Amino acid sequence: MKKFCIKLFILFVLLVIMIGLIIFIPLPENSYDLAIIDKHRVLAGTKSPKIVLAGGSNLAFGIDSEAIQNEFHIPVVNMGVHAGFGLGRILHDISRFLQQGDILLIIPEYDHFVNIWNGDGAAYELIILNVRQNHLLLSLYYGLPSGFSNYLYTHIVKIVKKTIDSSLFSYSRDGFNEYGDYIKHLGMTNQVFGTSASVGTINMTYINNFFKFIDDFTERGITVMLSYPCYQEGSFRNSIELIQEVDKVFKSKENLLVISTPVSYCFPTNYFFDTPYHLNIEGRSVRTKQLIEDLRASIFHPNR
């Protein structure tokens, strides 16, 4: 029994060492998630007042920030990268760059209030060694992200693929422009993808944590607005009850300016590139025009 315990302990130590080595191996420099490092630099160098867009890849793939900046003559920085970072960590991550007078426009994915508020495997890219935001591991706003084993698997796959053939990457760090928009896919042929099933049931704990962020930002003199993500029409219909519920909850928050309706961003399948959240060049144009109208009718209304 003693020998068995010793062997078991040795195996455990070896496993820990192996996991540690995997984590310490840096991702390829052009890995998509590492674009958050570049976005930190852009946001830090952008003077206030500014509009900061916060959310996941629905923002990265679906907004023309330059058009918004030209329309309202105020700097715009798109901080969207990956919904799997977790909305709590996304907001916490950019909080240090926000100043009084800034406008924070939050456009979350619906999943953030069901199962990825805390993040999934992608969150480990943000909080461990690659981006080194270790303080995001713990907070009153969120718990530990799920999917550590998935993170290890993806980490290995990315490193192996880079070693074999760098052309295997479809998303990359260099696909973002100076505003933080992903543009590498624009003009490419739409990919086949499936319609998402019902996202699930709203988690009020996540909503309450989200509202704590809103209160903190408001107290700092930051205007907080919320719009809705672009969503493929079939996926939208499958989650209509959840979508209507979150819309009602958001509108009940007095210091959160909801500038859009969910249905305004329910788009046909031909507007999407490769997922129910990622727009192609045509969808991106339509969505940006709609968002400009929503902004104009709210805080930028000429009569206000």
Number of helical runs?
A: 11
| Side-by-side strand order of the widest sheet | 2-1-3-4-6
The CATH class of the domain at 34-117 and 174-296, by name, is: Alpha Beta
Oligomer state of the chains in this structure: single chain
Radius of gyration: 20 Å
Features:
single chain, 304 residues, alpha/beta, Rossmann fold, five-stranded parallel beta sheet, two-stranded parallel sheet, 11 helices, 9 strands, 10% strand
Task: Give a short summary of the structure.
The protein is an alpha/beta fold. The protein is built from eleven helices and nine strands.
Account of the protein in words:
It is a single chain. The protein is of the alpha/beta class and 304 residues long. The protein has a domain at 34-117 and 174-296: SGNH hydrolase (Rossmann fold, 3-Layer(aba) Sandwich), CATH 3.40.50. It is 41% helix and 10% strand. The protein is built from eleven helices and nine strands. It has a five-stranded parallel β-sheet, with helices on both faces. A two-stranded parallel sheet has the order 5-7. A two-stranded antiparallel ribbon has the order 8-9. The longest helix is centred in the first third of the chain and has 23 residues, at 2-24. It is globular and about 75 Å long. The protein starts with a helix and ends in an 8-residue tail after the last helix.
Write the layout of secondary structure elements.
Blueprint: H1 2-24, H2 35-44, E1 51-55, H3 57-60, H4 65-72, E2 76-78, H5 87-95, E3 103-107, H6 123-127, H7 148-164, H8 204-219, E4 223-226, E5 231-232, H9 233-238, H10 240-251, E6 257-258, E7 266-267, E8 272-275, E9 278-279, H11 281-296
Parallel strand pairs: 1-2, 1-3, 3-4, 4-6, 5-7
Antiparallel strand pairs: 8-9
